[in-house]
């Protein structure tokens, strides 16, 4: 890799969104006198009677959770999207609005309150992947649902209100902003090159092998060339798959293995239960030709130098362009050493 990228400020292009990120490797040496996060590494119990997500407990709306033993899914008690919203549109000069409907669900990864994905085996995580597939396919059949967003917020620093291992599924009638950008970029590339944008990118990454952290027969874990967050990573299938619904059982297990590997490496990095937001971007469920899509899962962790120092997206990031200090190559090297 050109050494200029490791020593001097520069911009990198995100091929999936069409946007740029500012990289400032020299700033990693600056002293930190800002806020330090509080780290809580206390071991949680396997069952917490006050937890709304533990098996057999009563949720805030009065419903009782079954005594589930694997993965448990329910409709979010505080859904951000309403499925019964009336259809309306406002177009009054520069005032524009329109109704948005959807279905939001919560998915508990394990009945064990003490665990996270990093504590689960690939076989256990495979059951989570199977549930993601089932939910994606079921929601895709809903006539008003045109996109399904699977994600997880882990850790209080990421706004997670309950430490029980869980994620969410928000499905809606229109494409969210980030998905719309990726949809356009992949569509244009496929039209111009008759190949998968992410597939061609992965081929180049595997050849260079500077940002790859882990790979198995079907999946690659890497730090994207254009990564914004300090230890951002992506998991992507080597062969183009439009969505997780196209994964075979073996591929689902390899996907689960990749998730297990990177989440365990994260926990080792600063010797703490590593916070992050993760999400799967995949083909819309709008019934159109989505053959340009290549699904992928991204992890956006906020920790920068230690378990107590967080990367804040403020100032220039809010008003200008996302910016990072350590390079993607440096981050990949550190994570690779923990796999």
Give a description of the structure.
With 339 residues, this protein is an alpha+beta fold. It has one domain (40-336): HIT family, subunit A, CATH 3.30.428. Helices cover 25% and strands 22% of the residues. It has helices spanning 4-7, 122-140, 177-193, 197-208, 249-269, 316-319, 328-336, and strands spanning 10-14, 19-23, 72-75, 89-92, 95-98, 102-108, 147-154, 166-172, 212-215, 219-222, 233-237, 276-281, 296-300, 303-306, 309-310, 323-324. The strands form four sheets. The chain has a nine-stranded antiparallel sheet with strand order 3-6-8-7-12-13-11-10-9, with helices on both faces. A three-stranded mixed sheet has the order 1-2-16, with no helix packed on it. A two-stranded antiparallel ribbon has the order 4-5. Strand 14 and strand 15 (309-310) form a beta hairpin. The longest helix has 21 residues, at 249-269. It is globular and about 60 Å long. It starts with a helix and ends with a helix. The mean pLDDT is 93.
Along the chain, the helix and strand elements come as HEEEEEEHEEHHEEEHEEEEHEH
Helix/strand class:
alpha+beta
Number of strands: 16
Could you report the average pLDDT, rounded to the nearest whole number?
Answer: 93
Q: Helical segment tally?
A: 7
Strand content: 15-25%
Q: How many domain regions?
A: 1
CATH topology: HIT family, subunit A
Largest sheet: 9 strands, antiparallel
- CATH second-level architecture: 2-Layer Sandwich
**C-alpha end-to-end distance:** 22 Å
Superfamily at the CATH H level?
HIT-like
Report the oligomer: single chain
Strand order of the biggest β-sheet: 3-6-8-7-12-13-11-10-9
Helix proportion: 25-40%
Shape: globular
CATH class: Alpha Beta
Mind telling me the C-alpha Rg?
20 Å
Instruction: Give start-end ranges of low-pLDDT stretches.
Output: none
